[in-house]
Amino acid sequence: MQNSFRMIARLGLVLLVVGLQVTASAQGRGRGASNPSGGPPSGVGVDRGIGTSSSASNGRADTGRGNASDRSNGRSDAGLDRARLQEQNSQQADKELNDHPGMAASLHTTANDLRSGYQAALSTNPNLKFGQYVAATRLAANLGARNPNITRSAILAGLAAGKSIGQTLQNLGLSKQEAKDAEKRADREIKDAKRH
C-alpha cells in the first residue's frame, strides 16, 4: 500500500513538472502567427502596424478607421496628422542636435534639456519648428532680465497663436525695431553656436 502511494505521488509529481514545462514554453508566443519573425509590427511611430492591420483583421481595421473618421467628423484623421507632424518635427530636432553637438552648450543648456523642452512644446503646438524653439529659448535668455514678461513660454504661446516671433515680441512690449534687433542678435548667436 505504501509503495503504491509513493508510486502515485511520483507519477503526480512527474505530471505536474511536465505540465509546468508545457505551460512555460507556451507563454511568450502571443500572436506569433501574424508576425512570424517576431519583433514590433511593421511601420514606424504613429503608423506602426497600420500597413498590416487590414490583412490581419480581414478588413475590419479599415472599417474601424473609417468609422472613427466619420463619427468624429475628421477629428480622428486630424489627430493622426497632428501626431505624424509632431513625430517628424521631433526627428528633425534630433538630427539637428546630432549634426551640431556643441550648439546646446554654446546656448548655455544641454542637448537633453533642449530636446525634452521641445518635445513638451510640440504637445501643444505640433507645427513648432525646432529652430523656432531654439530662438525662443535664446530670446528669453537675452531679453528676460530687462523684460520679465518675455519668457520662452510667452514666445511659444505667441507662435502657437499664429503670430511670428517679431509680432510676439512686440505684443510683449518691444518696439518694432527692438524686436527686429533682438531677432537678429539671437539668429547670429544661434549660427555661431552651430559652428562649435
Order of helices and strands, N to C? HHHHHHHHHH
* Termini gap: 87 Å
Q: Count all strands and give the number.
A: 0
Please state roughly what percent of the residues sit in beta strands, choosing from under 5%, 5-15%, 15-25%, 25-35%, 35-45% or over 45%: under 5%
Q: Which outline best applies?
A: elongated
| Helix count from the secondary structure assignment | 10
The mean pLDDT is 77
SS-based class: mainly alpha
Please mark out the parts with pLDDT under 50 across 5 or more consecutive residues, or reply none. Answer: 29-40
Question: What is the alpha-carbon Rg in Å?
Answer: 28 Å
Question: Largest sheet, if any?
Answer: none
Proportion of residues in helical segments: 55-70%
Mind explaining what this structure looks like?
The protein is mainly α and 196 residues long. Residues 29-40 have low confidence and may be disordered. The protein is built from ten helices and no strands. The longest helix is centred in the first third of the chain and has 25 residues, at 2-26.
Annotation keywords:
elongated; about 70% helix; about 200 residues; about 0% strand; mainly alpha
How would you summarize this macromolecular structure in one to three sentences?
The chain has ten helices and no strands. It has 196 residues and is mostly helical. It is elongated and about 105 Å long.
Architecture blueprint of SSEs:
Blueprint lengths: L1 H25 L23 H7 L3 H12 L3 H25 L3 H4 L4 H14 L5 H14 L8 H9 L4 H7 L4 H20 L1
Helix pairs in contact: 4-6, 7-8, 7-10, 8-9, 9-10
